[in-house]
Automatic annotation (TrEMBL):
This is FIST signal transduction protein. PANTHER family: BLR0328 PROTEIN. InterPro entries: FIST_C, FIST_domain_N. Residues 24-217 form the FIST domain. Residues 218-357 form the FIST C-domain domain.
């Protein structure tokens, strides 16, 4: 595997040296701000440079290049596989009844005996991430790892843009299938938040909208815990996500609040919260959040049997970036220290992360995690 990276920043291109053969590159990943990647000249430039590659775009809440995070730019990573084939499929949520059917459609299009893994780039505003993941899992009989993320839009939560081989637009979901025995994929996803307060039961919800916990109004209960942060809602909700345990699972996923409705006394989350599930409040622990990046990278490293990763895609949550602020680079440094100097590192800050908890389990939608996917050819 060979890679080459480019950075479009300040209206000019910075090209990093590489011996990659541009004509033989099969895949180009473009992570950038909405305003940047919507420029037709960005796609035109890359299509001219990489005429035979699938060029996949995602808008972001921050772009990751090596161990640094940027805003209002585009990070480009071209990949040339030597022994691996890929297939990329795009669909739009408007072509399906719901997000679940979208996931089922994508996996059906990629199905094959030698499918080794799938990487998802999804719209982050129209898609229900939990339902999308359920659809991706439905017919994943061989339990190939599925990872990826939901596109971002800085901290605006208004419009996200994704696309393949065209200027990106809204509502698209792209699935990239990697085929063959020579590609080794590792994955890890860790949050690092502290839980507090008693475990409670969701007693009324509708998909990703929460109404009642333990029979009481959820928004009123949530506000009691926030104290002075109540004045800063909904933005302050990023500091206090929920830990969710579904159907008796022993693993918890994190759910971030996207908005609140004072009239309905409800909260909308970036993922479903089924009735009967157990929840606890969480709060930020800066050191643990940064340490979680090391753990995620370690987990991804272990999954590839300690082979040295050649490419690592980091998908971290916008909430982590807003909380860490000037310390955001520290979580990237922590990951890079584990991944090593020779790994090409790219990625973005997202509205949701997709990854299994560990090997041989179905993928999950995560919020407020650092998710690392590593690729190595053997």
């Amino acid at each position: 595997m060979k890679t080459r990276q480019h950075h479009f920043v300040g209206n000019s291109w910075k090209d990093f040296p590489s011996d990659l053969d541009a004509g033989k590159s099969q895949l180009v990943l473009v992570f950038g701000s909405s305003d940047t990647i919507k420029k037709p000249e960005i796609y035109g430039h890359l299509k001219s440079a990489y005429p035979n590659a699938d060029i996949v775009f995602s808008s972001t809440a921050g772009e990751i290049l090596d161990n640094a995070v940027y805003d209002d730019s585009a990070v480009v990573t071209a990949i040339q596989f030597e022994k691996t084939t890929i297939s990329s499929v795009k669909t739009n949520i408007k072509h399906h009844a719901n997000s679940f059917d979208t996931g089922v459609f994508l996996m059906d299009k990629l199905s094959g005996a030698d499918l080794s893994c799938v990487f998802i780039i999804s719209d982050g505003t129209f898609i229900n991430g939990s339902e999308l993941v359920a659809g991706l899992n439905k017919d994943n009989k061989h339990q190939v790892p599925i990872t990826g993320g939901l596109a971002g839009d800085a901290a605006r939560f208004e419009k996200t843009y994704t696309g393949i081989n065209q200027v990106p637009s809204q509502g698209n979901v792209i699935a990239i299938g990697f085929y063959g025995k020579n590609i080794k994929v590792g994955h890890g996803s860790v949050g690092g938040w502290d839980e507090f307060g008693p475990e409670r039961t969701i007693t009324k919800s509708s998909q990703n909208i929460l109404f009642e916990i333990d029979g009481d109004n959820a928004l009123d209960l949530y506000k009691k815990y926030l104290g002075d942060y109540v004045k800063e809602l909904p933005g302050s909700a990023l500091l206090f996500p929920l830990s969710l345990r579904m159907n008796g699972d022993d693993k918890n996923v994190v759910r971030t609040i996207l908005s609140i409705d004072e009239e309905q006394k409800s909260m909308t989350f970036a993922g479903n919260l089924p009735e009967g599930s157990k929840v606890r409040l969480m709060k930020a622990n800066f050191d643990k959040i940064i340490e979680a990046s090391s753990k995620a990278a370690n987990n991804a490293f272990a999954d590839i049997e300690n082979s040295k990763p050649e490419l690592a895609i980091l998908v971290s949550c916008v909430g982590r970036k807003l909380i860490l602020q000037e310390r955001t680079d520290e979580e990237l440094d922590a990951a890079k220290e584990i991944l090593g100097q020779n790994a090409t590192i790219t990625g973005f800050y997202s509205y949701g992360e997709i990854s299994p908890f560990n090997e041989s389990v179905q993928c999950e939608l995560h919020n407020q995690t650092m998710t690392v996917t590593t690729f190595t050819e053997v």
